[in-house]
Amino acid sequence: xxxxxxxxxxxxxxxxxxxxxxxxxxxxxxxxxxxxxxxxxxxxxxxxxxxxxxxxxxxxxxxxxxxxxxxxxxxxxxxxxxxxxxxxxxxxxxxxxxxxxxxxxxxxxx
Amino acid sequence: xxxxxxxxxxxxxxxxxxxxxxxxxxxxxxxxxxxxxxxxxxxxxxxxxxxxxxxxxxxxxxxxxxxxxxxxxxxxxxxxxxxxxxxxxxxxxxxxxxxxxxxxxxxxxxxxxxxxxxx
Amino acid sequence: xxxxxxxxxxxxxxxxxxxxxxxxxxxxxxxxxxxxxxxxxxxxxxxxxxxxxxxxxxxxxxxxxxxxxxxxxxxxxxxxxxxxxxxxxxxxxxxxxxxxxxxxxxxxxxxxxxxxxxxxxxxxxxxxxxxxxxxxxxxxxxxxxxxxxxxxxxxxxxxxxxxx
Lengths: 110, 119, 164
Prior knowledge:
By secondary structure, chain B is an all-alpha fold. Chain B has 5 helices and no strands.
């Protein structure tokens, strides 16, 4: 079971999953992210500082989120990527496709 | 009513249909409208949208390039060696392959520029 | 049956890896359920560490195995939760010397696919392979698919210390 915390602040939303994001729970993350995007926030930050591991199902969820966000002009930022998670983004050649910052504060400023 | 509206939003996002009042335009300066145009093109069989997708392979935005390639791959089953993260010269080379493919498979379609869109 | 050479991917040009044969010293059977992926990852990571890999490499190999298992679950068994999957591991080593790598084999009893048709694609999750196969090929030195004798597929992955 993946714990996901969602926080709204002045038109922006921060979604913070906790735990490994793999095939067993990536749909849960997808549900939370899609719900966050429904309200067309100004920006959506997916804070991955509490995610020690992610596989391609998690990455696919974030790619889908990016596509939805772009269609509605919501800025999507990923932050707090741990080494293993950053590694899969680099392997998938998505590290330059997403806006990635070090933490939530930097994400809000970006 | 709100739930029905939210369901419509979710479904529209998934299949690339537009919401009332939302434009899908490859040539728009608005990235959202371009993205919607890409999403729509991925779901259709309309040969006229292929040149526009190929043009977006030259976008300055790597996300846009990636999405355009996904749409092309979904439509044609191939990438012709294009990588959205490759160097500009290598991407340009791959775009030339796409243009050649487009001319070979659909000679009547509008020509595709091989210059950068500079977005 | 396709030969390993026909559908192998070698990421580096180097001396061929001596692939261990015989019964695997480590072999686990699991059902095709995503909730068991983390256990498989932990196993692969722990055994890889004993074979001399650093933490980064152990993490990457766990990812490669995870992706392979996901492909079996999603595409082999079409998300059925009652399919059997076997994960086997061998250290790559010469007698009296420390291991220089590891061989990992994933086997299933799912539908058979022409190994030639399994290829990496860009973020496409519809056909077998996709990003998962790309990840496996990026991480492992050598990998190949083959059909098992009667039913199912086998994915063989090899990684040595000296190359990555």
